[in-house]
Structures are given as structure tokens and as C-alpha cells.
Write a structure and sequence with these properties.
Number of domains of chain A: 2
Shape of chain A: globular
Largest interface: A-B, 93 and 76 residues
Strand order of the largest sheet of chain A: 1-2
CATH superfamily of the largest domain in chain A: Formate dehydrogenase/DMSO reductase domain
Helix content of chain B: 25-40%
CATH topology of the largest domain in chain A: Formate dehydrogenase/DMSO reductase fold
Order of helices and strands of chain B: EHEEHEEHEEHEHEHHH
Oligomer: heterodimer
Number of strands of chain B: 9
Number of helices of chain A: 26
Largest sheet of chain A: 2 strands, antiparallel
Structural class of chain B: alpha+beta
Strand content of chain A: under 5%
Order of helices and strands of chain A: HHHHHHHHHHHHHHHHHEEHHEEHHHHHHH
Strand order of the largest sheet of chain B: 8-1-9
CATH architecture of the largest domain in chain A: Up-down Bundle
Helix content of chain A: 55-70%
Structural class of chain A: mainly alpha
Distance between the termini of chain A: 86 Å
Chain lengths: ~625, ~260
């Protein structure tokens, strides 16, 4: 009882957190909540919810086939939970997909706009059909309690149709368990060779069988533990035996395929993908196959629980690998799911588990009928020995506890959510406050403890007006409040040409082939390098005065001018005269020529003090670049 | 079928194609989204100039002859038009992003920032220009004729002439002539252009052909599984019944029991 309460409480907590995030996912769009990128458009939701969910739901068709097709009647006791697990699994897939789709309200488009060449089309159609079949397969469990004559009539019809429904369910299942693998056939460029194979659909189908069996085992063991009923060990032992066979077949086909394609040696080549493969094949194949082949392991609760746990985790890992992890090495993606993605996925699973418990407590799902009726409702009220306070039937206080957990989860999720996900406004134009200390501020834009006077207003004009804050102020990057200067001024610390190309092209009427300046002895137009460009000195004959320090890299050609940080500061001429008067080497490309210890270390808390320091100690930058020599050097 | 031929040796890297593209397609201001790639393409940037080994190479949708995106899209939002461009219809799209996973060049990009997000990629100016017989905006903007537009066959012939005239200048290959079944954006280049594609190196097999066999197997597998399962159900059921009769067990009782369970899930 306590275990059940604790488990359900945590599930409600997860559902609450996921529900809160879900609101912001649909309100603010997919970008702020997820970590998806252009390089990795499929993330955790596809890998875990869709791929994992479908795989985990495989128990439904495997057990239904065992009982109704192979007439192994003794497994009848676990058909209902297995079918419900499958139904909830697929429902989780559908819900997960609604989160992942950019335009979820268009999900019905698949029904009218057909593209039969697309594996995803087939998966989608199969999920829709199979969900319907599963709902009908499971309907008797709910309908048998109905009193209304019409519902009873429907119950009789559905009950009669059980065998055809089961066979239809197997048809849809085998199709789209495999076509989930076909999805990745079109991605040989993304998927690592150890996973990409033309028989991917067959492997997916073969792995669905042992996984389904072990999922049913897990589900049975968990519900027996929580509801304190007897373990169905004799039945589960049979499932374990079948599972070991299915695992050996799967392993044989998988390694056979690797051998035929000749990539077996790649398993031991080291590196992320190869090691991932080794871990995966150990836990989703070799270890459980060996464990389950030992009769003593199959007979014991612990042995079954461990093997079932390993298999389930292993095959979910297999689906995650194919769905993304095996693409990391080939695409070089840096995608790591955001915690909100993970919480949504866990919340969906938690919701499915809660529905399972609800059905188990209210309908004849398990062997012995509804779980609640005979266990919880009949519990007599007790009195606390010390205080004498009444301790009520724990079922009803449970509800209060659950709603508290739900609200707690939701509140915590909203609190922890990053500002971007909550507001969704980081990418939307919005009015902002101007900087608090006026337009000229001292910033340490490059975060290197060296500050400069920064004119906010003039930068606003260069970037796209007062609504473009997001261009520099990246609220999404943790720890970074604004873009560093070098993000735009990429060449600020390297010598850069200050040559105005447009002006030259216009005044020389260069024409489309650029031949006026970009001359090539072989007559090719427009090669943009030093060798094939007319030297400046050819026109600007008096450009370099006698005795200048400018050294020419290519004789006769000017080459590159000093960095434009200097030009922007309007310092070229005044400082050349002032600072470099007697020096043999001009030091102007070097910030420390002017900023020599005059500025205190960066302290964001007192910018006004720094401003004062700069104004009194540093040389005042001249208001506008003097046109004389700097201008003629440029033009 | 129309195509674009880009000669990397002629490109001067001026990015006029990029600004023409952004202007023609009205792509709005650029934003520093965290989900962008390094190659410069994004939902507001359908064409970019990538610098590699001192050469500037234009990156855009390759408009494959058998496009992976069109084959992958479950609702058929991508169409390979007879003129060559691969177009996208946002009205059909449901945002599954399978096209982005399928594209061997990683071209389609997603407007993650939008609450109503669509896939974005170069459509070779199909609606505004190519369907009216004009050249795409990027080609028209090129000052160096580094990128030209025309009939694919004619451009291939032109490319072969250039390769023959300057054998030392180029890698002796027309990029896009045969890879992934041929593309409508061709390149002549002095360097290998592997960096334009994504992940593992590709051969000449069209991408859609890799799923064809699996997709063709769907109807027979569906019907086959149905027949086999029905057959097994009937055969095994009959054998069990016959065995019970032969063993002289209480047939009606057993049968009735089994039958009851049969119907009751």
C-alpha cells in the first residue's frame, strides 16, 4: 500500500511538471522548449517516445498471438494487461508525436494527402489503425460493466470479433514495428555503419518480440509487487524461455548481417559509436539471452526481474541509438536534449502508468478482478496509538496527496524553466529600455578584462533598429549576457583592409566583369586576390609619403592597412603623431598603446566609476576621424 | 529539365547571390538562433557562401532528380516539378521534419522560433521566376557568371567543355552529375566538394531507392501475415480439438470452456 502510494505520488509529480511544460511548448513554440537544431531535427521525443513507445507496446500483439493464434490458453491471465500496455504505449506514441510535430493540428493531413513512398506515412497509418484495433480489443473490459442494453449489444459484437481483431492487430503490428526501421533506410548518410543495414526493418521486427515478452514480464512483476498479489512466476517463466529463443534468433540475424556486410571489425575499432554498439549489444542481447537460457534464473523472481529490466533498457537503448545516438559521430551534432524534453517524455510515460493503475483498480484487468474493491475500500479506519487521531482509508487521503504532488510538479517546472521558454520572446521583436547609463557605456565586450567606450545608439543604427536586441543580447546562452565585440568585428585584432570597394566600383564604372581593377594576364574575369588586382599605388601615386613605416608585403602594392579598430576610434592620425612620433614600429594595432593600465579591472557593479576613470585617464577619442591622411589612405 | 551550374573557380565570394535570395524571398532580418549550423543556412538564409581551402563555394538546395525529401514526406508536401526545382507546400506540412533527416545534403531548415513553424529551403525561385521562364534571383545577381542557369543537358555539355579546356584547373568531375542519382545544381570545382553533404560519403544510388524494396513489401507482408495467422489459428485450434476428442476427454465441457475464454478477452 505504501509502495503504491509512493509510486503514484511520484507519477503525479511528473505528470504535473510535464503538464506545465506542455502549456509553454504549445504556447511559445517548439524552439524555446527543446534543444533541437537544424542538424538534429529529431531528438529525444522521437527516439524515446515514438521509437521506444512502439517497441515497448509490442507485448500486446505477442501475447495476443500466443493465446488466440497458438492456443496457449494458460497465458490467458496476462492478455488483458498486455493489451492495455500496448494500447497505452501507442497512446503515448501519439501524444509524444503531438509534442514533436511542429504543426500538430495538421496531423490528420496524413489521412488525405497520401504519399505511399514514405515509411513515415505507413507508420502513421498503421499507428492510427492499430490504435483503433487495440481500443476495440480492449473494449470488452470496459463494456462488460455497462448496464445499458445498447452497450451490452456492442459488447457482444466486439467480444465475438475478438479473434479477427487479434489477427488484424498482429498484421498491423508486424508491419509497423518493422517500418519503424524502414524510416531510417533513407539515412545512410546519417546512421553509423554498425546500425545501418538494408534489413533494418527485419531487425526491428525481430527485436520487438523479445522486448514485448519482457515488457509484459516487467509489467506483471511491477503490478504484483505494488498490489501485493502473488507473482505469476510459472507463466512468466514460459515467457522467459520464449524470450531467450527470440533473443538468440535476433542476435544471430544481427551478427550475420554485420558479417555479410563485412563491418564486424568495426565493432572493435574504438571510438564513441563502436563502444556504444558493444554496450547496446551486451544489454539488449547477449546478457539477457544467456541469463534467460538458464532455467534457474527463469524460475526465480530476482532472475526474471533482472533479465526483464536489462532487456527493456537494452532495447529502448537500441531504439535511441538508431534514432539519434548512432548519428552523433557521422553528423558531429552537439544536440543534448533539454531537461524539458526529458520531463515531457517522462510525464507521458507517467500518465500512461497512472491510467494503467486506474484501469487495474476499477476494471477486471488482472486475474482477480478490480484491485481496489476488495483491498482498499474495505480497510477499516484505524486510530493512531499515540494521538488517537483517526487514520482513514488510505485511498482517499491518497487523492489529496496526488493533487498536491501534481501542483508541486507544475510549480517547480515553471520556476525552473528558462526565461526563453517561459516568455518565448527572445526571438520576437520587443521594445526595450535603453542602457541605464546613457548611450556611451563602458563595456568589457570580449570578457577579457579590457574595457572600451561603447556607443550603444550607433550600434543600434547599424544592426536593425531598436527592436533587434536579440542580435547581441543572447538571453539563451547561460552565463553570457551579450555578444562579444568580436562576434561582429571578427577582424578587430587582425590587420584588415579599410578599402571601400563599392566606392571604387562606382567611380571607376567597373562593370560586371570587374576588369577595371581585377586584371588577369590570362584574361579571366574577377579573380579576387592580390596577384590579380591592380595595385593602389598605380592610381594613388602619392599614397605613401617618404620615410613612412608602412612595409609592403608585395613590392609595389599597398596590401593591408592597420586594423579598423584604430580607424573606428578615429585615432589613426592624431595618435600616429602623438604616440608613434619617434618609434620605429607603429604600435597602433595594439590596444595597449592607449589602454595601458588606465582602466581598472572589470566590475559590472560600478560602471559609472569606470566611466569616470576612463574619462580622466585615457586619451579622449577624437569625435570624428579626420579625413586627411586616413581618408586618402582608404580612397 | 532546368539546372544551375556553379563554377567554383569563377566565384569571387561577393555573396550577391545570398542577398538577392534574401530579398526575392523576403526572408526578413537575420537572427542569431542557437539552432543554426556553421554553414550559414537557416530558415532565413536559403543560400550561403562557404569558404573552404581559400575557395568560396555556394551552398543551396541541390534539387535532386530523385529527391529524398519528396520521397520521405508523409503528406507529399515536397514536389519535384518538371522544370527541375523541388518545391515545398507549407499548407500540407505537418512539421514532422523527416525531410530534414532524409536530405543527404542537410538542406531543409526549420523555423523553430515560430509558434507555427514551417520547413524552409531554396525552391529555385520556382513560383516567382522559373515557372515564368526567368533565371533564379541568385543566378541573375552573380557578377562573375560563376553560377549560370539553363537546360541541364546543355549545362552538362558546357561543363564538359570547360573540363576539357582546362584539365589542370578542375577536379575532373561534374559534381552533381551522378551522385545520389543526379542533381539539378551542378558544380565544377578545383577541390572535392564532400563538405557540402552531410555525414557518410554517398554513392550514386538515388536515396528513395533505398526504401523502395521495404515499401513494396508492405502489401504482401500485410496480407501474408493475415493469411498465415488465420491459418495457424484454425490449424492449431483444430488439432487441439481433434486431440481432445481422440483422448476421449469430456469434449463438450472442455470445448465450451475454451470457447468461453476465446470470446472473453
Amino acid at each position: 500500500m505504501r509502495k503504491l502510494l509512493a509510486v503514484k505520488g511520484s507519477l503525479w509529480f511528473l505528470v504535473g511538471a510535464a503538464a506545465a511544460i506542455a502549456v509553454f511548448r504549445f504556447w511559445r513554440g517548439i524552439g524555446p522548449t527543446t534543444a533541437l537544431t537544424d542538424l538534429t531535427p529529431w531528438g529525444f521525443w522521437i527516439g524515446f517516445d515514438v521509437m521506444g513507445g512502439v517497441a515497448l507496446a509490442a507485448g500486446g500483439f505477442v501475447i495476443a498471438a500466443t493465446v488466440y493464434v497458438f492456443h496457449l490458453e494458460r497465458y490467458h491471465a496476462i492478455v488483458r494487461p498486455a493489451v492495455l500496455t500496448a494500447f497505452l504505449g501507442y497512446l503515448a506514441v501519439a501524444v509524444g508525436l503531438l509534442f514533436d510535430l511542429g504543426l500538430p493540428w495538421n496531423i490528420w493531413h496524413m489521412i488525405i494527402f497520401w504519399n505511399p513512398h514514405s515509411p513515415l506515412f505507413e507508420v502513421g497509418m498503421c499507428v492510427m489503425c492499430y490504435l483503433t484495433v487495440l481500443a476495440l480489443e480492449f473494449a470488452p473490459v470496459v463494456l462488460e460493466l455497462a448496464k445499458h442494453p445498447l452497450l451490452q449489444k456492442i459488447y457482444l459484437i466486439v467480444k465475438k470479433a475478438t479473434v479477427p481483431l487479434v489477427i488484424l492487430g498482429i498484421m498491423f503490428s508486424s508491419l509497423h514495428q518493422s517500418s519503424l526501421g524502414s524510416l531510417f533506410l533513407i539515412m545512410p548518410h546519417r546512421l553509423h555503419e554498425l546500425w545501418y543495414t538494408p534489413i533494418l526493418p527485419i531487425l526491428f521486427f525481430l527485436s520487438a518480440i523479445p522486448l514485448g515478452l519482457m515488457m509484459v514480464t516487467t509489467e506483471s512483476l511491477v503490478s504484483s509487487t505494488l498490489y501485493e498479489s502473488e507473482y505469476e512466476l510459472p507463466l512468466l517463466q514460459g515467457l522467459g524461455k520464449a524470450c531467450s529463443w527470440a533473443l538468440w534468433v535476433y542476435l544471430a540475424v544481427r551478427f550475420g548481417d554485420l558479417a555479410v556486410r563485412g563491418v564486424l571489425p568495426r565493432i572493435f575499432e574504438g571510438g564513441f559509436a563502436a563502444n556504444l554498439f558493444i554496450v547496446e549489444i551486451l544489454i539488449c542481447g547477449i546478457i539477457p539471452a544467456i541469463l534467460l537460457s538458464i532455467p534457474a534464473v527463469r524460475r526465480s523472481f530476482l532472475g526474471l526481474a533482472v533479465s526483464a529490466g536489462i532487456t527493456v533498457v537494452g532495447f529502448v537503448m537500441n531504439r535511441l541509438d538508431v534514432g539519434g545516438l548512432a548519428m552523433i559521430e557521422t553528423t558531429g551534432t552537439r544536440y543534448i536534449p533539454s531537461w524539458m524534453e526529458v520531463v515531457i517524455s517522462l510525464g507521458i510515460v507517467a500518465g500512461a502508468a497512472l491510467v494503467f493503475f486506474f484501469v487495474a483498480e476499477n476494471f477486471a484487468l488482472m486475474h482477480g478482478g478490480p484491485m481496489r474493491k476488495d483491498r482498499f475500500k474495505l480497510a477499516k479506519p484505524k486510530f493512531h496509538p499515540a494521538t488517537g487521531v483517526i487514520v482513514a482509508d488510505p485511498y482517499w487521503p491518497g487523492i489529496k496527496r496526488y493533487s498536491f504532488r501534481f501542483v508541486l510538479g507544475a510549480a517547480l517546472a515553471v520556476t525552473l524553466m528558462p526565461q526563453v521558454a517561459r516568455s518565448g520572446k527572445a526571438w520576437v521583436k520587443q521594445p526595450v529600455h535603453p542602457p541605464a547609463y546613457g548611450d556611451k557605456i563602458v563595456i568589457d565586450g570580449n570578457l577579457n578584462d579590457k574595457a572600451v567606450l561603447f556607443n550603444h545608439q550607433s550600434h543600434l543604427a547599424v544592426v536593425e533598429g531598436p527592436d533587434s536586441c536579440a542580435y547581441c543580447h543572447h538571453m539563451v546562452l547561460t552565463g553570457a549576457h551579450a555578444t562579444g565585440c568580436a562576434r561582429c568585428h571578427q577582424d578587430q585584432n587582425i590587420p584588415t583592409s579599410i578599402f571601400d570597394h563599392k566606392l571604387h566600383a562606382e567611380s571607376l564604372k567597373a562593370g560586371p566583369d570587374c576588369k577595371a581593377c581585377h586584371t588577369d594576364p590570362r584574361g579571366r574575369p574577377g579573380r579576387k586576390d592580390v596577384e590579380h588586382t591592380k595595385p593602389c599605388l598605380e592610381c594613388h601615386t602619392a599614397m605613401i609619403p617618404e620615410g613612412a613605416f608602412v612595409k609592403l608585403k608585395v613590392p609595389g602594392k599597398i596590401g593591408l592597412a592597420p586594423g579598423y579598430v584604430d580607424a573606428m576610434h578615429g585615432l589613426c592620425i592624431p595618435c600616429h603623431e602623438k604616440m608613434d612620433g619617434g618609434s620605429a614600429v607603429p604600435g597602433l594595432a595594439n590596444c595597449t598603446t592607449c589602454h595601458s593600465g588606465a582602466i581598472p579591472a572589470f566590475d559590472p557593479l560600478s560602471p559609472d566609476q569606470r566611466m569616470q576613470a576612463l574619462k580622466t585617464k585615457a586619451p579622449e577619442p577624437s569625435p570624428s576621424p579626420k579625413p586627411s591622411a586616413a581618408g586618402s589612405a582608404g580612397k | 529539365m532546368k539546372a544551375i551550374l556553379t563554377d567554383v573557380t569563377k566565384c569571387i565570394g561577393c555573396e550577391r547571390c545570398v542577398s538577392a535570395c534574401r530579398k526575392t524571398n523576403d526572408l526578413g532580418p537575420e537572427r542569431p538562433y542557437p539552432w543554426k549550423n556553421e554553414d550559414g543556412l537557416s530558415s532565413d538564409h536559403w543560400c550561403s557562401v562557404v569558404t573552404k581551402d581559400g575557395y568560396t563555394v555556394r551552398k543551396q538546395c541541390r534539387h535532386c532528380i530523385s529527391p529524398a525529401c519528396a520521397s520521405a514526406c508523409p503528406v507529399g508536401a515536397f514536389v519535384k516539378t518538371s522544370e527541375g526545382p523541388v518545391t515545398y507546400d507549407g499548407k500540407k506540412c505537418m512539421g514532422c521534419r523527416y525531410c530534414m533527416m532524409a536530405c543527404p545534403y542537410g538542406i531543409p531548415r526549420y523555423a523553430y522560433d515560430s509558434v507555427v513553424p514551417y520547413v524552409r529551403k531554396c525552391q529555385m525561385c520556382y513560383e516567382t521566376r522559373v515557372s515564368k521562364g526567368l533565371a533564379p534571383a541568385c543566378v541573375e545577381a552573380c557578377p562573375a557568371q560563376a553560377t549560370v542557369f539553363g537546360d541541364r543537358e546543355r549545362l552538362l555539355a558546357e561543363a564538359r567543355t570547360r573540363l576539357a579546356e582546362n584539365p589542370g584547373k578542375y577536379v575532373q568531375k561534374i559534381f552533381g552529375e551522378t551522385e545520389v542519382g543526379g542533381t539539378c545544381v551542378l558544380y565544377l570545382s578545383p577541390i572535392e566538394l564532400d563538405f557540402l553533404s552531410l555525414g557518410n560519403k554517398l554513392d550514386d544510388r538515388p536515396m528513395p531507392s533505398r526504401t523502395v524494396r521495404a515499401m513494396e513489401a508492405v502489401p504482401p507482408v500485410f496480407i501474408g501475415v493475415g493469411i498465415i495467422m488465420t491459418g495457424l489459428h484454425w490449424t492449431i485450434g483444430r488439432r487441439i480439438r481433434l486431440q481432445r476428442e481422440r483422448n476421449g476427454l469430456g469434449e463438450p465441457e472442455q470445448h465450451g470452456h475454451a470457447h468461453k475464454k476465446d470470446g472473453d478477452l
